[in-house]
Write a structure and sequence with these properties.
single chain, mainly alpha, 6 helices, elongated, NDUFA8, structural constituent of ribosome, mitochondrion inner membrane, membrane
């Protein structure tokens, strides 16, 4: 994005939100349930990003995603902290690439706790790849008008003399 004097950047106070300071293994352990819990906010943010093509117009949607994530982790901390810590620790220490395959037992315990205490069911395999229609309350942006450039060279007049080609037509096979 090229910046000129016409570009208005948001103030730093608009951009400042509390960050989610968690490790990669913690985010990986929570990813499925977090994605399900904050699905509407995430879809709204991504729709805004694709429609607007300008991240400055989607600041509020991004703040909503961060707020939803913070709310999710507060609820998990209150209801299923021990189960979640066991699962995140297993994901962190069982492999070098945060693989889930060695942590299925602790995953089952966490899934049961999330279902019983927070009523968040683990989505089925492939849930996030299914096509869904997102209902947004935000108005659809107007399409950008394409610039019209006048033709720099005028066409030949209709009564102009048209000489036959000097070396014949390149479409010689099409002649009768």
């Amino acid at each position: 994005m090229v910046l000129t004097h016409d570009v208005i950047l948001p103030e730093e106070s608009e951009l400042t939100v509390p960050e989610v300071n968690l490790s990669a293994s913690t985010l990986m352990a929570a990813s499925v349930h977090l994605g399900k819990y904050c699905e509407h906010a995430n879809n709204e943010f991504m729709l805004c990003r694709f429609e607007e093509n300008d991240p400055r117009k989607c600041i509020n949607e991004g703040k909503a995603v961060t707020a939803c994530t913070m709310e999710f982790f507060r609820k998990v901390k209150k209801a299923c902290l021990q189960e979640f810590n066991q699962y995140a620790n297993c994901v962190d220490k069982s492999s070098g690439d945060f693989s889930f395959q060695y942590c299925r037992k602790t995953q089952g315990v966490l899934d049961q706790c999330m279902l019983e205490k927070l009523n968040i069911e683990r989505p089925s395999f492939g849930y996030f790849t299914e096509a869904r229609v997102h209902d947004s309350k935000r108005p659809k942006p107007l399409p950008e008008s394409k610039p019209h450039y006048p033709d720099p060279t005028p066409a030949l007049p209709e009564d102009a003399e048209k000489k036959p080609p000097r070396f014949g037509s390149r479409f010689y096979w099409m002649t009768e």
